[in-house]
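name: query_chain
kind: protein
chains: 1
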Amino acid sequence: MGLNLEITPYGGWSKAVRMRRDGWELIAPLEIGPRILRFGPIDGPNVLFENKEQMGKTGAKEWMIYGGHRLWTAPENDQCYAPDNDRVSLELLPEKGCRLTGETNPKFGWQKSLEILWNSDGLVQIEHRLMNSSGKALPVSPWCLTVLNQGGVALIPQPTHAPHPMDLPKGTKFSMEDYLPNRNLTLWKYTDLADPRIHLGRNLWTLSQKKNTQAFKIGFRHTEGWIGYQLGDLFFAKWISHEKEATYPDRGCNTELFTNGDILEIESLAPEKPVPAKSHSIHFEWWHIAKVTFAPTDESSVLKHFSSLPRPSC
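structure:
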């Protein structure tokens, strides 16, 4: 079944672009953004969070979360909270997807766009483009945040566990790399690793979204590609790229997870490189969504699902 593209009212806004393929839909409003605010089954639940009090609003002078998926700039500072409450331009890409472009921010000198391509294998490719219209390099990099709906569990596969060389059977070959670290964990002032929402397992880390809870955040250098969020029988997966030699923000994080009583965010970060004058920086994500019959506590089924997903050609 091919990709269907149409303009439709959504969430109190008069115009949004709706993409449909194989029983699933993705919706982005055209009067704010660029943002993606819906991803899920047609006539079914939305895996993305929507702030009901802000839906349909335009032209506000302050930044509004709205929900859904957005492009920010790293590191976190006042640039992140620049309002994106005005109309975006739309370019339809027949049989492929669309491109949404926001207005140039006169204070900071950048312009943001999202190119959304929905492939026949089910992968949604999102190109995040941060364009520098100023005459000097901008010390920021793309930071892409997906705000997910309440009540789900984030699922983070881990590299293959291996024993310390001292614990190997006598005569087993090993290399000096087996003595070196292969993961990191960045913590914020408000992070409490005794929080029952987080579980750091051998093969899978999980972070649950719970109502009436306080903020919690972790960051890390993710090398396994996919990260998931299971909400009931919906399994949302996001492919996060990793460049081995790159320097990443926030003490080396290409991935961050944030949650509180309202939301859970899965965030990907581009390498820490200034955006050259009159040029741009690009960062890709790939999404996949499916219905599953297993529980997020079924580790073997979760890992099997990850391994069954198509891999992006990145």
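note: The helical segments are 249-252, 299-308.
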